[in-house]
Amino acid sequence: MNIAIVSGKGGAGKTTIATNLFEVLRTTSDLSVELIDANVEQPNAHLFVESLFNDDCITKVIQSNIPSFDTDKCTFCGRCVHFCAYNAIVMVKEVKQISVYEDICKSCGACTYACNDSAIVEVSRIIGDVSVSNEGNAKFVEGRLSIGSTLVKPIIKAVKREITKTSISIIDTPPGISSYISEIIYDANFVIVVAEPSVFGLHDLKLMIKSLNDLRKDFGVVVNRFRGEYNEIHEYLKGNNIPLLMNLPFKTEYAEWNSQTKLLVNNDDSLNSDFLKLFEEVKSIYIQKSMYR
Amino acid sequence: MKQISIISGKGGTGKTSIAASFAALANNAVFADCDVEAADLHLIFKPVVEEAFEYNSLKKVHIIQDECIRCGLCFNLCRFDAIDRIRNKYYVRTFSCEACDLCRKACPVSAIEPIDKKTGDYFISSSRFGPLVYGQLVVGAEISGELISHIKDLASEIGNENNADFLIIDGPPGIGINAIASITGSDFALLIAEPTQSGIHDLKRSIKLAATYDISVKVIINKWDLNIEIANQIEKYCMSGNIEILSKIPFDINVSHAMFQQKSVVELDETSIASESIIDAWKQLLSSI
Q: Which residues of B touch A124 (CB under 8 A)?
């Protein structure tokens, strides 16, 4: 079962929910549990869980191709330039020069396909890596984009390939509502949306819910850092029949533990049952909805 | 006109709260909200939209089933796994499609056509702080950085027409194409960091990103007293890299209150402890450029 943890706004608490849910399931059940960090631009989950895994982590380098031009064979016909939808190839026929903007190239291979003169050889470049650690029934997977690379999706796809179908997989995701999120939650069985109780939080939550409805995903909402002073999110959920899965209150000690990458459930015992309840809630909605499909 | 791009590695560190306060403090500035996936600045600016534009990125494609001869060429050529084969029929999985257009150009029977669907909106607006250009990506749409470039270019044009002193950009979290598109061309990137281990981790990656694009960096540590020890680590790290820390803003519940009331922090109460540090940061910023 794949459970993706998402939020439109950054800093709402995705990693907090993901890592603590993972820890509770890891320590209180004999289920196979995986924590998957798909926030490849800024992966943080490892800071909270790396102490749980001993250091034999396997790292796979993720590469992607860019064209390299053989100017002896190139006839400067311009077919590759025409085929490149991203305008990543620059050619100056008069001085027989041709090159590619690496930042813009998405490695689609259109130029190679277009070339009739075998003048393009694709060379690979590193765009990031995926690392996998195992410990007992627990597994941790992290995708990491190389700094300066813009190819986020291939890393996300490589991360997804590490997900075990028979496990409970908890997936931490990047903030936002773009196709990166669609790519991750496409295979998710359930989505937990983490919302911050603020005007910004509600605005971004509504966008996220639209994207989940577009993909026909089952989801529920966790309100994080709840202080009781802003209730519009709760009213919105009620009015739209969206399950409220959990209220995680604001406490200064939670903020402090979080800042030191201490898991909340290991420091406040009462949270263990709250997170277990969250999981039960997710399961029961998922089972209920599955019966109607 | 000085261009300042406010970004953060990690989300939720306070970019928008600080951008809105700078907006209230700046006398002659234009603003751009480049966090197109969660554009929140307009919630505080409450601007009047003057012109609205549709943004259409590169066109994704779909397969006309009646004309498809099921040769499978598109399926084999697509490097984004965006074409699904279901019972010998081919379908484009739209959100995986990267609009490279190779399948359409290669299809021997022209059975693939572009989809005309907007991928975002952007607006020129006016507000009590000055002109604001902002945009919103359509949910599930492709990120290309182009929408951000449009927003920045428009804001910059307006700024030049008005002889503005500053273009202040509220940027996105992360280090991907959106962050890159936001910081390029800026006089400096202003990084908002929070004193958490995650915050340090992400700050370091953002600083490296800025270095890759030769953009100088200044830092504000927000909510610094939530973890003084980590705040000190951030200071040390910045000092060792010769990075100026403009200010340390303490945790202040007034920041939340301001947001509830859809005001900037300094508008709510100039004398709150957060306001004082933000005002201090703004003065520091003015004197450093």
A: none
Residue A64 lies in a domain: no
Same domain, A143 and A283: yes
CA B49 remoteness from chain centre: 20
* ipTM for the assembly: 0.92
A282 band by pLDDT with thresholds 50, 70 and 90: very high
Flag if B143 and A179 touch (Cβ within 8 Å). yes
- Pick the closest to residue A263 from A20, A4, A70 (CA basis): A20
Phi and psi dihedrals of A148, rounded to 5?
100, -20
Statement to judge: residues A100 and A194 lie in one domain: no
Shared-domain flag, residues A134 and A262? yes
Chain A residue with CA closest to B105: the answer is A83
Q: Which of B251, B209, B205 has the alpha carbon at shortest distance from B226? A: B251
- Contact: B98, A108; criterion CB under 8 Å: yes
Q: Do A177 and B140 touch (CB under 8 A)?
A: yes
Counted domains in chain A = 2
Query: Which of A85, A101, A118 is the endpoint of a domain?
Result: A118
Determine whether the interchain pair B38/A207 forms a contact, defined as Cβ–Cβ distance below 8 Å: yes
Q: Which residue of A has its CA nearest to B195?
A: A259
The structure tokens listed for B32 are: 């751009």
Taking the C-alpha atoms of residue B95 and residue B61, their distance in angstroms, rounded to an integer, is 11
Q: Domain range holding A82?
A: 71-118
Q: Do A199 and A284 belong together in one domain?
A: yes
Distance from CA of B240 to the nearest CA of A (A): 20
pTM across the whole model = 0.94
What pLDDT digit, counting tens, does each position of A211-230 carry? 999 899 999 999 999 988 88
